[in-house]
Amino acid sequence: MIVVYILIGVLVFGILIASHEFGHFITAKACGVRVDEFSIGMGPAIWKKQKGETLYALRWIPIGGYCAMAGEDTASEDPRAFTNQKPWKRAIILCAGAFMNFVFGVLVIFCIFLSYDGFYIPVLAGFMEGCPYESAEGLQVGDRVWSIDGHRIYEVDEIGEYLSQGGDTYDIVLIRDGKKVVLDDFYMVRQVYDDSGKAYFGLRPGYGVEEATFGKKLEHTWDTSMYFTRVIWKGLRDLIRGDVEVEQLAGPVGIVEYMAETGEQSRSFGEAITQILLLAAMIAINLAIMNMLPIPALDGGRIFLLIVTVIIEAVTRKKLNPKYEGYIHLVGMVLLLGLMAFVMFNDISRIVTK
Asked: Could you give the residue ranges of the DSSP H alpha helices within 242-298?
């Protein structure tokens, strides 16, 4: 079965790339920009077809793709060239790929949740002996923890995480009997201990269950998307801080391997597909976020340089040659491809040495 899951992983990864490039493609067409090539994958072409002004291609290496627009990085006399469009049009086209990835991730989550009968929600399942916070005016068993100090709580482990980051008082929002209960400046200190001497707040977080109505399916779809977004930002923060090493990053090979392992560890084929699709949704949202970072060669880098170019042209009253921006993106692309090669080498090494 692992071969089946590997093939599914490769297919899913290809679809994620296709959805991103399709976002650029369809938006460029809608904005009247000439698209010379729409390609999924990199390297030699497996299949290609010229239709109208656009060459459509499927290439061998499933690690990328591109929507090649006329005049994307060079000056052009064609009024339909990308560089000859108004800045707001160029910005929309550049944002469209990440937007499509995010929408794809949200739709996948929603489709999965359509079959659900109920959802687990983070609640207070009980209190340790001696906990002083259980009262009619404070916390009660069964309270759904909605937020702590403005942070929405999506998972049980986030309750302890955000309490541990605060001081002695917290702004806590609960859902009790269908109504919001707001506890402003609620006093809590780590004063209840277990036998090991570890400090607790005296709470026993757990999971409750709520019925999966259509409205709740929409709500949990959005909540899950936001939870994935939070996890991705935390991972990026840890990478910048150095808490996560570059060697721990996973590329296409590592992602497909993880999808295959997820499928193998599932109790049934149906559960395997569900878990793989949830992972695909998270990767789609991850691609949306990462592509909007202000790094040359990524969409976010192009938008950043677009803003810089508009400001410089407004001050100098002179139009900049887009080839200089092209050089910056070329350097960024070389560095990005180098990082991808390094990550892929690590992925393959890890698989071989298992």
From this structure: 252-265, 269-291
Spelled out in words, what is the top-level CATH class assigned to the domain 118-211? mainly beta
pLDDT tens string, the chain, 354 residues long: the values are 667 777 777 788 888 888 998 999 999 999 999 999 998 887 888 898 898 899 999 888 766 678 889 877 777 788 898 888 899 999 999 999 999 999 999 999 999 999 999 999 999 998 887 788 888 788 999 999 999 999 999 999 899 888 888 778 999 999 999 899 999 999 988 776 666 656 678 888 999 999 999 999 999 999 999 999 999 988 888 777 777 666 666 666 667 776 777 777 777 888 888 888 898 999 999 989 989 998 888 899 889 988 988 888 888 877 777 777 777 777 777 877 776 677 667 667 766 676
Measured between alpha carbons, how far is 107 from 323 in angstroms, rounded to an integer? 38
Q: Amino acid letter at 344?
A: M
For the chain, give the number of residues: 354
Residues 12 and 276: their CA atoms lie apart, in Å, by 9
**What three-state secondary structure class fits 62?**
strand
CB atoms within 10 A of CB 234: 13
Please tell me whether residue 170 adopts helix, strand or coil conformation: strand
Closest CA to 225 of 160, 283, 300, 292: 283
Measured between alpha carbons, how far is 90 from 212 in angstroms, rounded to an integer? 41
- 64-88 burial, b if ≥16 CB within 10 A, otherwise e? bbbbbbbbbbeebeeebbbbbbeee
Q: What are phi and psi of 51, to 5 degrees?
A: -130, 110
Q: Which helix (H) or strand (E) holds 53?
A: none
- Name the pTM for this structure: 0.85
Question: What ranges do the domains of the chain cover?
Answer: 2-112+278-352, 118-211
- Residues near 252 by Cβ (< 8 Å), separated by ≥ 6? 13, 62, 63, 344
* Whole-number Å distance between alpha carbons of 153 and 150: 9
